[in-house]
Amino acid sequence: MELDMIQDAFDRVSKKQKLSSSKTQELLNQIEQEIEQAIRKMQSIENATSYSDPKQILADLKNKLNEIAPANQLEALQKDLNIALGKYVKVIEKSFNPDISKAYRNVNFDLHIMNQIIASHFYRQGLFDLGDCFISEANEPEAADLKTPFLEMYGILEAMKCRNLEPALNWASSHSEWLMQNGSNLELKLHQLQFVEILQNDCVQNALRYVRKYLAPNASAHKVEIPKLMGCLLWSGKLHKSPYADLLSPNHWEKLADEFMQQFCSHVGQSYQSPLSVAIAAGVQGLPTLLKLESVMAVKKQEWQAMKQLPVPIDLGKEFQFHSIFVCPVLREQGSDENPPMLMPCGHVLSKQSIVKLSKSSTRAFKCPYCPLEASVAQCKQLHF
Q: CA-to-CA distance for 202 and 118, rounded, in angstroms?
């Protein structure tokens, strides 16, 4: 993708800049050493410990500096860097059209919803002052309700940064049933981390009491985890040398914080990632293709914005694929609201237009193109995607 080309060009510039900086520093250090050496020789003359000629010392210094030729070396380094910078600028100019408004499509936005999305983004990022300022200037007082759950979330996350798991454990405990229904073992992971903290900073007896109180009641569901924690007790004071040393890794705290954020956002009906960030990132990836399409259509004197479907695909990364995509194996066209996928009695799936063409009428039976079974239009069920 074009963004990868820009990244590669930037990396080359960065590499050249670091090399230039390193070489320049080496050159300055070399010049400094020559000057300091000349100064020491001059001082030895003043202290009557040497009979060297001061003029000769300065002449030798001048010759040394001429040999080093700092101006020529610096000029060569700067030239290489300027060449890399020039190429980088050309890559940017080639990849980005300064007038991105050409890729804009007239869409009737609901300003109220847009303001809520922006306010939610600020609160989701923990930028509460900025979010408050925005809803005040946008005159969206109702959006202030979006702030409350994220205040709670960031309060818990701040406590976790300070190695205080109590707020997170309280939240997980009060939503224990919901977490189990969603297949999450967040509560168990929090208890494991708390156990390790107690074992490291307290005593074995307190760690054992903690396991009995919080994990033993559900021991049948933790047949792997509890024996592992019991094994940690035998290595009290030297857990870092034990087979369970991985439990001390800071990565557990980072991963658990991310998992907590995911579960918290899911519980309050919010996506883990900011919808605004995802939309902008997807737009950045798709923008070059849209700008190229606009320029081609302009030459052909065609209006692409009036099209219901783009004539070229816009390839986005897998991180932007949130729903499955159906492509009819007969027509080799992507499914749409007008041409949805249809499930046949035999289990094969075709598009609605394919089934209509194969049946030639709504009552006539037709043979599935992938197996010997026959079906009618009435027997086919529409699938939602």
A: 45
Q: What is the pLDDT of residues 223-264, one digit of tens each?
A: 788 888 888 888 888 888 888 888 888 899 999 999 999 999
Cβ-proximal residues to 294 (8 Å cutoff; 6+ apart), any chain: 102, 103, 304
Helices 251-267 and 166-174, axial angle in degrees (round to 10): 40
The β-bridge partners of 374 are 367
Cβ proximity of 242 and 235 under 8 Å: yes
* Torsion angle (degrees, nearest 10) of CA 137, 142, 146, 152: 100
Distance CA 188, CA 76 (A): 61
C-alpha to C-alpha distance for 172 and 256, rounded to whole angstroms: 12
What's the Cα-to-Cα distance from 7 to each of 231, 282, 315, rounded to whole Å?
A: 48, 17, 18
DSSP assigned state of 48: T
CA angle 194, 198, 201 (to 5 degrees): 130
Phi, psi (deg, nearest 5) at residue 40: -65, -40
- Per-position b or e across 188-205, b if 16+ CB within 10 A of its CB: bbbbbbbbbbbbeeeeee
Two structure tokens written together for 219: 């021991």
For residues 2 and 95, the answer to whether their CB atoms sit within 8 Å is yes
pLDDT tens for each residue of 29-67:
999 998 998 888 888 876 666 566 788 888 888 888 888
- Give 152: exposed, middle or buried? Use CB within 10 Å, 0-12, 13-18, 19+: middle
- Taking a C-beta distance cutoff of 8 angstroms, is the pair 95, 283 a contact? no
Cα–Cα distance measured from residue 211 to residue 232, given in angstroms and rounded to the nearest whole number: 12
Q: How far apart are the C-alpha atoms of 48 and 329, rounded to whole Å? A: 98
Helix spans in 96-246 (H): 111-124, 128-137, 147-161, 166-174, 176-181, 186-201, 204-214, 225-233
